[in-house]
Amino acid sequence: MQRRDKAWKKYRIIPVDANYLEYKRLRNEANKQVKQDQANYRKTILKSFKGKPKRFYGYMQKLKTVKDKVARLTTVNGKLTETDEEAAQTLASSLSNVFVHEAPLQPDTNGNDVQEQNIDCPVIIITEEKVRSKLLALKEDKVQGPDNIHPAVLKSCADTVAKPLSIIFNKSLQEGTVPQDWKLATVCPIFKRETEVTQATTDQFH
Fold first, then answer.
1. Considering only CA atoms, which of 110, 112, 201, 129 is closest in space to residue 169?
2. For labelling alongside 14, which of 31, 39, 104, 191 has CA 20 to 30 A away?
3. Residue 56 CB contacts under 8 Å (≥ 6 apart), including other chains
4. Which residues pair with 80 in a beta bridge?
5. Which residues, including other chains, have CB under 8 Å from residue 93's CB and lie 6 or more apart?
6. pLDDT of residue 198
């Protein structure tokens, strides 16, 4: 690139065809080298993103030249939100209204055993080895759920908690019920750009 700049200055001082052809050759060579270096850099970056989604999203965030603002939402009172916190609360309340509350299982009035009714169904058994393999496959860069237990803790304690968890899973399958704590979830509203969601109302999320 330095040789290209020198050739350009030389051509501006002495504007002859020979100097211009030399500048054009160096310019094309510099552009080709820059594009090749950029392609190699992108390949290196893409390889480093494997298994690291946070690094990928952080890189994409740095590439953004225009910072998006949170769109204003219409509340249940018909007014537009003024702050980002108010928009997040409005979106979270609208999403909570679409949750389905399951009715508790009714006991069998005929007195028949559940196993007798589903005698042809295959029996599912969750072994301790399966639970341990799932715990060891947890990603440590994820946040904890409603139980406030970080995946890194579960992964490091896989050998200890695999047996009690397998017992709980098998008991849940046998009884056909799920513990109430397992039905909880941490729901976070996902922000969309103002061009995608403009003056959105809470009715659009039902």
1. 129
2. 31
3. 49
4. 74
5. 76, 202
6. 42
Q: What is the pLDDT of residue 66?
A: 64
The two tokens of residue 123 are 């029996």
Whole-number Cα distances in Å, 192 to 154, 195, 198: 33, 8, 10
- The torsion region of residue 138 among left (phi > 0), alpha (psi -120 to 50) and beta comes to beta
Residue 199 makes CB contacts below 8 A (sequence gap 6+) with 71, 72, 73, 74, 80
Q: Can you give the pLDDT at residue 62? A: 78
- 176 dihedral zone (left: phi>0; alpha: psi -120 to 50; beta): left
Amino acid at 132: R
Alpha helices in 72-136 (DSSP H): 84-96, 114-117, 128-136
- pLDDT less than 50: residues of the chain: 113-118, 195-206
- Count of residues in the chain: 206
Residues 98 and 205: beta-carbon distance below 8 Å: yes
Least Cα distance to 205 among 101, 103, 99, 102 occurs for 99
What distance in Å separates the CA atoms of residue 97 and residue 189, rounded to the nearest whole number?
13
d(CA 72, CA 30): 47
Tokens for 114, please give them.
């559940």
Distances, alpha carbon 147 to alpha carbons 72, 134, 184, in Å: 32, 18, 9
The strand pairing partners of 74, in sequence order, are 80, 201
Tokens of 154: 């579960």
What's the farthest any 2 CA atoms get from each other in the chain?
Answer: 104
